[in-house]
Write a structure and sequence with these properties.
413 residues; FAD/NAD(P)-binding domain; Enolase-like, domain 1; 3 domains; 9 helices; binds flavin-adenine dinucleotide
Length: 413
């Protein structure tokens, strides 16, 4: 074993798990310590919003059992919050005052939910969803709530709306913007998504502001600028902010996320890396710096930093992709679209399947699909290999068909 102070990882989520498992898989044999504020073994968040949870142990969402860490000599310090970084002494300080030195520090602190800034948001029966404990509280509330109001028509809100519908509740989604998922997907797909949610029985109110949540002991109704909605449960998902305060307080560059270079090292201190939801990074598929909130991003960035610290590395540049399961609706996104891209809607071979292909300067840069995994996978393969796809290539065809035709042509030559 090497005698250095080792690697300290702050955060016990998807990115932290990926970093420490990759470190060991890549042969790093120094000390590895993970500080995780939550008391649970590292777990995946996506399942939390896709069904109602009643499993108090969270075993089914764990990324690995306890033995995984023991066998790899990874010290998990669960329920221990890091409250300060001393970058001069290369030490982290925990809430209990303990200090631990590091040779490399990895910030994997994730993001926190944006609070709902209206009176009554603190009432019983009003929930946000980020952690396993939040999911369990919502799962319990869904066993009795008949009227559910979802504030925010983003991914988590729409997933939860479908979970509540599946439990038989009457569900209203209240969204301030004029469209659902207004920043995340192309306007062409937003209309389709709305239609599909409405068809499943979810009431959608866009362009609607929530003014207050009312009730005595617990929530009774939600007051909006378009009237009052009865509510036995309110769930809100109005975006997240990166947990970058440790970095900021330590004097590292922060700009809505810890600013890192193409190796995911803090631009202020090369011994500190940031990965996952808390990192703002340059990306070959983006103009300028981006901060992404996805499992792909957290996993690939954690792995990239794990490999670099273990001694083998290339700059980070994985193709971004994402999914969201909203009841029967499977939304998948690959690439990074910008608002000025040209979008072409391509129907699939059944009415449920639809794709929105985004082009920049005539060249394919991103693809959003509804209930069409094969088209998503074809897009991933083409974009990963950087195979140029021009808007004219797609006249009357799909990416799947195009990829097959190109493969056949390669075989012939
Ligand atoms: C409900 C939900 C559903 C989602 N669904 C999808 C999906 O379908 N598809 C998809 O691609 N992505 C999805 N995501 C996003 C995805 O889960 C995140 O992008 C991913 O978890 C980010 O990983 P991370 O390690 O950066 O952060 P996290 O997984 O959030 O982990 C960060 C951890 O760090 C801990 N921490 C923070 N500060 C400290 C500190 N000072 N000391 C100690 N510990 C600290 C936090 O408590 C937290 O446990 C979803 C997210 C949520 C919340």
């Amino acid at each position: 074993m090497t005698s250095d102070a080792g690697v300290v990882v702050i955060g016990g989520g998807q990115a932290a798990f990926s970093a420490v498992s990759t470190l060991r898989a890549s042969g790093y044999d120094g000390p590895v310590t993970v500080f995780a504020a939550e008391p649970h073994l590292p777990y995946q968040r996506p399942p939390l919003s896709k069904k109602a949870h009643t499993d108090p142990d969270g075993v089914r969402v764990q990324l690995a059992p306890e033995s995984f860490y023991r066998e790899r000599d990874i010290a998990l310090r669960l329920g221990e919050d890091v409250v300060a970084l001393d970058t001069a002494a290369r030490t982290v300080v925990t809430a209990s005052g303990a200090r631990l030195p590091y040779a490399h520090l990895v910030l994997a602190t994730g993001a926190r939910n944006r609070p709902l800034p209206v009176p009554g948001a603190e009432l019983d029966g009003v929930h946000a969803l980020r952690s396993l404990d939040d999911a369990l509280a919502i799962g319990r509330a869904l066993t009795t709530a008949r009227e559910v109001v979802v504030v925010g028509g983003g991914f988590i809100g729409l997933e939860l709306a479908q979970v509540a519908r599946a439990r038989g509740a009457r569900v209203t989604v209240v969204e301030l913007a004029d469209r659902l998922l207004s920043r995340a997907v192309s306007p062409q797909l937003q209309e389709q998504l709305r239609e599909r949610h409405e068809r499943s029985g979810v009431r959608v109110l866009t362009g609607t502001a929530v003014h207050a949540i009312e009730g005595t002991d617990r929530v009774r109704q939600v007051v909006t600028d378009r009237g009052t909605l009865p509510a036995g449960l309110v769930v809100y998902g109005i975006g997240a902010v990166p947990r970058d305060e440790l970095a900021r307080d330590a004097g590292l560059a922060v700009d809505d996320g810890v600013v890192v270079d193409e190796w995911l090292r803090s631009v202020s201190d090369p011994r500190i890396s940031a990965v996952g939801d808390c990192a703002r990074h340059p990306h070959p598929h983006a103009e300028g710096l981006v901060r992404l909130e996805s499992v792909q991003n957290a996993t690939d960035q954690g792995a990239s930093v794990g490999r670099r610290i273990a001694g083998t590395s290339t700059p980070y540049g994985s193709l971004p992709w994402f999914w969201s399961d909203q009841g029967d609706i499977k939304l998948q996104i690959v690439g990074l679209r910008s608002p000025s891209d040209e979008v072409l809607l391509v129907p699939g071979d059944s009415p449920e399947r639809l794709a929105a292909h985004a082009f920049r300067d005539g060249r394919l840069v991103a693809v959003e699909t509804l209930n069409w995994p094969a088209e998503h996978l074809a897009a991933r393969r083409l974009l990963e290999r950087r195979t140029p796809v021009h808007v004219d290539d797609l006249a009357g065809t799909t990416l799947g068909a195009l990829a097959r035709a190109r493969r056949a042509a390669e075989v012939r030559t």
